[in-house]
Every structure is written in structure tokens, then in C-alpha cells.
Description:
Layout: H1 2-18, E1 28-29, E2 31-37, E3 40-41, E4 46-51, E5 59-62, E6 68-70, E7 72-75, E8 78-81, E9 83-84, E10 86-93, E11 101-106, E12 112-117, E13 135-138, E14 143-149
Parallel strand pairs: 2-14
Antiparallel strand pairs: 1-9, 2-3, 2-6, 4-5, 4-10, 5-7, 7-8, 10-13, 11-12
Amino acid sequence: MKTKIFVLYCLFVLFNLTGCSNNDGPRTEYVEGTVIFNGEPLSKALVAFHPVNDTGIAATGTTNEQGIFRLTSLRGGTKDAGAVAGEYRVAISRNKDEPSSFREEESADGRISKIPVFESLIPKKYNHPAKSGLTVTVEKKKNQFQFSLEK
């Protein structure tokens, strides 16, 4: 019995020493910005920052009615404001609110489901970080960006 308690105690100490706290990991920096499409603020758009080196932490935000977004990232299992300093490729997507059609998809158990298909309101190139042509560098400060998208 004493051996089990000792082992549990050692595991507890080990976890605390190795940093299982949600406060560990890289610091996030405040990031906000604006998305403009054809000269007008773009509301309800999803903005995603993808780390260039593919080893960082992605960050996302959604624009409000004025086209303004604020990023959050998932770090250590908790949502933190902002993004980790570094270089990012940016993807922006905005679909129609209602589906334009439905496609059928068969599940593993043979059931057929109708999956809604939403039409993009902006050129599809902006939906993919490698094709959008949008890149930014998040610095160790309050960051502000503006993205002006064209048809």
C-alpha cells in the first residue's frame, strides 16, 4: 500500500514539474483586424491564421457587422486571446447563410444523409491559406491588420 501511495506521489510531482499547467507554452499576443470586401466591411467571415512553419498554434476569429475580428487560439486546452508571435498564412471564408443545395452522403452503417452545400460569397482562393496570398507577422505587441479582398 505504501508503495502505491509513493508511486502516486511521484507521478503527481513529476506532472507538476513537467508543466501540466494551462499557463505553460508560448505567450499569445493581442490580434484584431478588419476585413473589407469590394470596399464594404465583410460580416460573419471566418478569419484563420495558420502558422507558416506548421509547428505553431493556429488562431481564428469571426468578423462582426463592421468587419472587425479578434483572434483567439487554442493553447494548452484553453482558449486564449490573440495569437503566438510569428509568421502566418491567412485564410478568410464567408458563405451564404442558407445552403444553395444538398448532397447525399452514405455513412458507415449505410444510412444516407443530406449534407448542406453553402456557396461562397467571396472568391474561393481566400478560403485556403496557401492560395489566398495573405500573410502577416504577429509581433510581441498589440497587432492590428486590415485585409482588403477583391472579386
